[in-house]
Amino acid sequence: MQIFTAKDAKTHFGAVLDLVQREPVLITRNNRPAGVFVSIEDLEGTYLADLLMEKEAGYDEWVSASTQDALAKHRANPDTGIQAGEIHQLVMQKVRAKIGSK
């Protein structure tokens, strides 16, 4: 495993990305481990890879339809809607449900 300081990793980021395709790369800060870069291929078969790579069938169509629906509702009645805090709560509920179903 190659080791880079955070400063060197920043300066040579392209080289780090190339290297990570061959082996994990440890990043240190103040002489302590701060993180590890690994390729997506190295994560294959893990929960993290599934989370990063998952794209359900029909997702693009669902996003498009949902966006169009939201825009149509807004155009019909622009004074209604939900506050940012409510949106955050709804999104977090969906994320928790998605993670809990794994």
TrEMBL record:
Gene3D superfamilies associated with the record: YefM-like domain
Domain of life where this protein originates: Bacteria
Entry protein name: Antitoxin
Species lineage: Bacteria, Pseudomonadati, Pseudomonadota, Betaproteobacteria, Neisseriales
Family stated for the protein in its record: Belongs to the phD/YefM antitoxin family.
Protein role: Antitoxin component of a type II toxin-antitoxin (TA) system.
Pfam families with a match to the protein in the record: PhdYeFM_antitox (PF02604)
